[in-house]
Amino acid sequence: MNVNNVIISGNLTRDPELKYTPSGKAVVQFTVANNNKYTRDGQAVEEVSFIKVTAWDKTAEHVAQYLAKGSGVLIEGRLKQETWEKDGEKKEKTGVIASRVHFTSKPKERSSDSGSANQVSLDMSGSEQAPF
What pLDDT is stored for residue 20 in this prediction? Predict the structure, then answer.
């Protein structure tokens, strides 16, 4: 049995980039900064990881509409690794294909709903298997 699930929380490092494929599918890419604090040899250490995330379809459109640089998110998804060769050198990158995006801070725009918008979840079941 193979399992490929990831949950990451953090803040967007820049505004999301929404694009459309030639067939009209929405895709958005954004980067999440995730901070890890620990102590080493009595010294506080803060380690920051920058994770590239891709979302598709309605989730992509909502991410682009409601999130901006600094927005807090919790991402559920799967890891996706790509490898290629450039100038005879093997390259690789790993990112996350989001299946759900939970907004953990106030969205940049208010919807018509007058209630609290601090916790919004977008489900992306059946997402396309495309690269980031």
Answer: 97
What value does the CA radius of gyration of the chain take, rounded to a whole number of Å?
A: 16
Q: Assign residue 107 a region: left if phi > 0, alpha if psi is -120 to 50, beta otherwise?
A: beta
Name beta bridge partners: 81. Answer: 94
End-to-end Cα, the chain, rounded Å: 25
Instruction: Encode pLDDT of 30-45 as tens digits.
Output: 999 999 999 999 999 9
CB-based contact 63:32 (threshold 8 Å):
no
pTM of the model: 0.76
> What DSSP element (H or E) covers 68?
none
Q: Is 104 helix (H, G, I), strand (E, B) or coil?
A: coil
φ/ψ of 84, rounded to 5, equals: -155, 170
